[in-house]
Write a structure and sequence with these properties.
Blueprint lengths: L11 H27 L20 H5 L6 H11 L10 E6 L4 E5 L7 H8 L4 H20 L2 E2 L8 E3 L5 E3 L6 E2 L16 H4 L8 H15 L9 H9 L56
Antiparallel strand pairs: 1-2, 3-6, 4-5
């Protein structure tokens, strides 16, 4: 009895890209862990800067002490000082005053994506893909470092002077190696497992990306309501979610169905001149079955 084998081929270019990417992530993880362990305190002082203009305040910044989220703020600072990636905002300096924590971030002159999206109503598919691709790379980097952002939304995405994206606001970011139960994130972006307090892992960032892509392409989020409780009910409702219904994935219908007269119908293929098969006993692989 002859055995068969399955061979998977990969080009030199694909091999180089794949393993170069892994090497980059491994090196990035080493650099992150080193900075995470060192966790430097003051890298500058308030006297080193000149105040020119207030660019924004932010709910989280104003309510941090009132909501007792100091630990989240310090954790976000620690994460920011340890990461470095083209599509993530960079922390340049950080220091403490008598009553404040100062974090000096790189200046991104294009501002938030949110007002740009509001102005045009919705982005084109090409425009949405352009931003989504950059977020995917950023999340690939973060998740490889066991970091989860947990607060992706248009307000937390900045555009630089060249039109490229920077994810910002790490106030809810966390270093997660297993599951966590912290309730956070923007209400329209909350994953069902967060709402139901079932515990979640880094996968919630990918779910947030899906919601964001929908909002960029449609101009509004997939879930919205006047009251938070109504919004949460829609987000956890499984009765209308494809793949979760009684018929499972069979609920998902194909967008178009080809015309077929039967199982052996070949009318959807071009016609070719039929040629007789040549079988020679001198051919190397004659009469042998090779599965590639």
């Amino acid at each position: 009895m002859q055995s068969s084998a399955t061979f998977n081929s990969i080009s030199r270019e694909e091999y180089t890209k794949t393993y170069s990417n892994i090497q980059f992530l491994e090196q990035a993880k080493e650099e992150f862990e080193d900075k995470w362990r060192r966790n430097p305190t003051n890298t500058a002082s308030l006297d080193d800067f000149e105040r020119t203009k207030t660019l924004g305040t932010g709910f989280f910044g104003r309510k941090v002490v009132k909501l007792k989220q100091v630990e989240h703020t310090l954790n976000g600072k620690r994460i920011l000082q340890a990461i470095q990636f083209p599509f993530l905002v960079s922390l340049r300096y950080h220091f403490k005053g008598n009553s404040s924590l100062y974090m000096v971030l790189e200046y991104i002159s294009g501002g938030e994506i949110f007002p740009h999206l509001s102005k045009v109503g919705r982005f084109s598919e090409l425009h949405s893909r352009f931003y989504a691709a950059q977020i995917i790379l950023a999340f690939e980097y973060l998740l490889y470092l066991d970091l989860t952002h947990r607060d992706l939304k248009p307000e937390n995405m900045l555009i630089d002077s060249r039109g490229y994206l920077k994810v910002t606001d790490f106030g809810l970011a966390n270093h997660v190696t297993g599951r966590t139960w912290t309730i956070c994130s923007f209400s329209e972006y909350l994953a069902p497992e967060i709402i139901l307090s079932k515990g979640y892992n880094k996968a919630v960032d990918w779910r947030d990306l899906g919601v964001l892509v929908y909002e960029m392409a449609a101009g509004y989020p997939p879930f919205f309501a006047d009251q938070p409780i109504q919004l949460y009910e829609k987000q956890v409702d499984l009765t209308k979610r494809y793949g979760k219904l009684k018929a499972g994935v069979n609920e998902v219908e194909a967008p178009s169905i080809p015309r077929c007269k039967g199982p052996g119908d070949t009318s959807n293929f071009d016609d070719y001149k039929e040629e007789a098969l040549r079988i020679s006993s001198t051919e190397k692989w004659a009469k042998k079955l090779i599965i590639l």
